[in-house]
Automatic annotation (TrEMBL):
Domain of life: Bacteria
Name by which UniProt lists this protein: Dehydrogenase
Organism: Streptomyces viridochromogenes (strain DSM 40736 / JCM 4977 / BCRC 1201 / Tue 494)
Matches recorded under InterPro entries: Amino_oxidase, FAD/NAD-bd_sf
Domain Amine oxidase intervals: 4-201
GO molecular function, one term: oxidoreductase activity
Amino acid sequence: MATGDTEERSDAVVLALDPGALRAVVAGSCGLGDESWRARVARLRTAPPFLVSRLWLDRPVRGDRPGFLGTSGYGPLDNVSVLNRWEGEAARWAARTGGSVLELHAYALSGGVGRETRQKELLAELHRVYPETRRARVVDARHEWRADCPLFPVGGYGDRPAVTTPTPGLVVAGDAVRTGLPVALMERAATSGFLAANALLGSWGLRGHPLWTVPEEGRGALLRWAARAAHDV
Ligand SMILES: Cc1cc2nc3c(=O)[nH]c(=O)nc-3n(C[C@H](O)[C@H](O)[C@H](O)COP(=O)(O)OP(=O)(O)OC[C@H]3O[C@@H](n4cnc5c(N)ncnc54)[C@H](O)[C@@H]3O)c2cc1C
């Protein structure tokens, strides 16, 4: 493995990267995989940017507000978390100051609208969702703008790279990786990490870590038959 002007030798490599970084590393490492695998990696897509705004307010939200609320019909706002209900540092800050710590998420934002404008839009939508926040002073704010989530086109499952690659000792892990199991997001990232470790351990004749998942078909023959019959109707 060569990075810049240094070279390191290793028995195995796990590429656990977001899709953009995986594309860049593979594109910049001509010896990895074969042509078809490299083309698959090059076809991985990155979802449009997301915004996470964390706000420290000078007053609490109403006592019956849930820790997490998914929203629809509030512009770009996708959800609101009252972090001080379930996160230690936020809870301590809120207890000390009498304020609250909220997090606003907006996913897959379309282009053409400036960051400042989007941040203001989220705050305005928060005021609609939780009107008691209209009079609150924002003591501090942090805004995370990123674009590193995988985008999954309809019908694209089969084209995604799996954990093992054509290069012995090279495995990939992450949410963009095809696992063959009914998992997604963090669960897929973690599951593919276990599968990658198991693939390497297996290649050295060592036992890996058993992975459990939900049943992928009915447990009894009769139920499987009934599910197939219902599907065929
Ligand atoms: C706002 C938001 C909320 C979410 N909420 C949830 C949720 O509630 N539940 C859930 O299950 N999932 C959630 N997700 C999704 C979850 O975060 C991802 O599915 C998960 O982080 C994917 O893990 P990953 O390892 O594939 O990629 P990442 O977490 O993106 O990790 C890739 C890592 O590679 C590093 N990297 C990049 N380039 C290089 C390089 N050249 N060299 C070394 N390192 C590099 C990056 O810094 C990064 O740390 C959320 C995502 C977002 C954005």
